[in-house]
Amino acid sequence: MRVWAWVAIGAVVAALTVLGFPLVRMQTELRLANEQAVQARTRIAELESAVANLKTELDASNQAREQLQGALEEANSDIEKRQFEVERLTTDLEKATKDAEPPGQEGDSAPAPSNGWRAQ
User: Fold this and answer.
1) pLDDT mean over 37-58
2) What is the pLDDT of residue 7?
3) pLDDT higher than threshold 90 for residue 58
């Protein structure tokens, strides 16, 4: 072979050597990046699953809260009705007590009943 052929072959080998090491290093870095991407996707899937579970729990908690809120509102309504009824009955009792007193007597001058009950 001629010298130029050997020089050309040497130049190609040198170029492959010079370019080969960075290419091998780049391929190693790409493999590492690919592994990290796979791990990140796995972690993302785990986090999405956790978020879905938390949303389900939140929905259940909101539903329970709404039921309790409804029961509370109903109980408050019942309390208001009973307070109104107590006020009405108290007024009726005061009126009945006043009507039961003999004329000319006012206040608590009537003798107290034997069971200790007194009108207020």
Assistant:
1) 98
2) 84
3) yes
Instruction: Label residue 1 exposed, middle or buried (CB < 10 Å: 0-12, 13-18, 19+).
Output: exposed
Q: Look up residue 101 and give its DSSP letter.
A: S
Best CA proximity match to 19, nearest among 7, 29, 27: 27
Q: Are 118 and 112 in contact (CB under 8 A)?
A: yes
Query: Which element (helix H / strand E) includes 7?
Result: helix 3-100
User: pTM score, two decimals?
Assistant: 0.52
pLDDT of 109 above 60: no
**CA angle, corner 58, sides to 55 and 59, nearest 5?**
90
- What six digits make up the tokens of 117? 């009950």
| Rounded Cα–Cα distance for residues 57 and 36 (Å) | 31
